[in-house]
Amino acid sequence: MRLYLRPFQSFYRSDKLKTLRGRDCLRWLVDYWNTYYPEQWDWDILIPMVDADIWERELQDFTHKTHRKYYYDMTQWKGRKWYLDVWFLPQEQAVKVKTRNDGVKEAVKVNAQNIESLVLFFGVFFFSAVAIVIIWLRGMNYV
To answer: Which of 77, 10, 90 is nearest to 39 (CA)?
Structure first.
């Protein structure tokens, strides 16, 4: 794990996490998620696990998505929905933990709508300019 990044930045936290293994580390992350305000971690956390069925007990309050085989928890903070996703990776024998928020998706939607509006505006502007030029040329008997 990258102990110099969030959520492990303080000296005490990184020393504590160096002693934790597997399920205990996952429990610490879930407690951290439930205790502090949510934040976007720009990297994935991989926690090595010995047995796949033990770690699931730490996620009893999480929602399970069977079609994608992952667990998630949702927290709302300042009008945004924040998610903590947890997967088991059988090839690596590890649990992958990642955060995400819907605020980013909403910003992308707004940006796409703005682009569509600009395309529509320039299309109408171009059509109007062509119509004005044609009318002007007809007045001069060129067309």
So the answer is: 77
Question: How many other CB atoms sit within 10 Å of the CB of residue 57?
Answer: 10
Q: Please tell me the total count of domains within the chain.
A: 1
Each residue's pLDDT, cut to its tens digit, for the chain (143 residues) gives 554 455 555 556 666 666 777 777 778 777 777 777 667 666 677 777 776 556 776 776 776 666 667 676 666 656 667 777 888 877 888 888 887 776 555 555 556 667 777 788 888 989 999 999 988 888 877 65
Q: Which domain holds residue 37?
A: 11-101
- Here the CATH number for the domain that contains residue 54 is 3.30.310
Buried/exposed 78-115: b ≥16 CB within 10 Å, e otherwise: eeeebbbbbbbeeeeebbebbbbbeeeeeeeeeeeeee
Least Cα distance to 58 among 93, 26, 19, 21 occurs for: 26
In a domain, 123, yes or no: no
Using alpha carbons, select from 133, 119, 70 the residue that is nearest to residue 97.
Answer: 70
pTM of the model: 0.53
CA distance linking residue 101 with residue 42, whole number of Å: 11
Within-domain flag for 37: yes
